[in-house]
Specification:
With 113 residues, the chain is an alpha+beta fold. It is 34% helix and 9% strand. It has a domain of 67 residues: His-Me finger endonuclease fold, CATH 3.40.1800. Strands 1-2 form a two-stranded antiparallel ribbon.
C-alpha cells in the first residue's frame, strides 16, 4: 500500500500556492509546449535579420522602388512571394515589392488558399 504524496508548495520566493507543474503553481508554471522549438525560432530570427538588412534593400532596388502589381511608389513593403509558412524561402528570389494595398490583397489571397 502506498500513501498519497503531500501537496507541494511553489518554489518561487514568496508564493504559497500548490504546485501544478514543474515545481511551480499555475501563475509561475512554464508555458505549455509550443509548435516551434527554440532552435527553429533562432533560425527564424536570424533569417529575418538577413531579410531586413540584405534582401529587402536588394528587392526594392531590383523592383525600381515601385509596387510590382500596380506601380505605386507609396507605402512600399517587401513581401514573400511564397509565404515562409508554406515553404517559401528568405532569399531574393522569393521577394517582391508591394504597396500597402496590394500587400493586403495578396495576404488575403494567401489566406484563402
Amino acid at each position: 500500500m502506498t500513501l498519497p504524496r503531500a501537496a507541494q508548495i511553489c518554489y518561487r520566493a514568496g508564493c504559497t500556492r500548490t504546485v501544478v507543474r514543474a515545481g511551480q503553481c499555475g501563475d509561475h508554471a512554464p508555458a505549455p509546449w509550443s509548435r516551434t522549438s527554440a532552435r527553429n525560432s533562432l533560425r527564424h530570427a536570424a533569417a529575418r535579420r538577413v531579410w531586413e538588412r540584405r534582401v529587402r534593400p536588394q528587392a526594392l532596388r531590383r523592383d525600381g522602388y515601385a509596387c510590382v502589381w500596380c506601380g505605386s511608389q507609396e507605402a512600399l513593403t517587401v513581401d514573400h512571394i511564397t509565404p515562409v509558412s508554406r515553404g517559401g524561402t528568405w532569399d531574393l528570389t522569393n521577394a517582391q515589392t508591394l504597396c500597402a494595398g496590394c500587400h493586403r490583397d495578396k495576404t488575403a489571397e494567401d489566406r484563402a488558399l
